[in-house]
Amino acid sequence: MLQWRVLCIAKENGVKVTVITTDPEEVVYGSTDVCYELISQMQQVGINVVTKEEVEERFAVIDDESVWHGGMNLLGKADIWDNLMRIKNHQVAAELLEIALGTVSEL
Questions:
Q1: Which residues pair with 67 in a beta bridge?
Q2: What CA–CA distance (Å, rounded) separates 22 from 51?
Q3: Cβ neighbours around 67 below 10 Å, total
Q4: Phi-psi category of 65—alpha, beta or left, where left has phi over 0 and alpha has psi -120 to 50?
Q5: Do residues 57 and 69 touch, judged by C-beta distance below 8 A?
Q6: At residue 91, what are phi and psi to the nearest 5 degrees?
Q7: Which residue from 18, 37, 58, 98 could staple onto 48, CB 3.0 to 4.6 Å apart?
Q8: What is the DSSP string of 11-40?
């Protein structure tokens, strides 16, 4: 999976990586065990993983400034309706992280 390799390369290059994903116990399709294994693999390479009951927004924040936002499952299967937009703005990044995590956080 390309996204997984990109995360690992970013982490190796000193980029702070946090993944916010649906709690495996709340996943409505797929295998709970596979979700737990993927989370474990990310944690083993130093990626901070935050699980939530429900993930409403799909986005990536890179170095607290670059945001990739859209209707694409960044860790999952590609879909014909996937879309992403890139925004380079510290304030937008901070606001999205606050929405996702409930507090302003240094990731």
A1: 61, 87
A2: 5
A3: 23
A4: alpha
A5: yes
A6: -65, -40
A7: 18
A8: HHTT---EEEEE-GGG-SSS-HHHHHHHHH
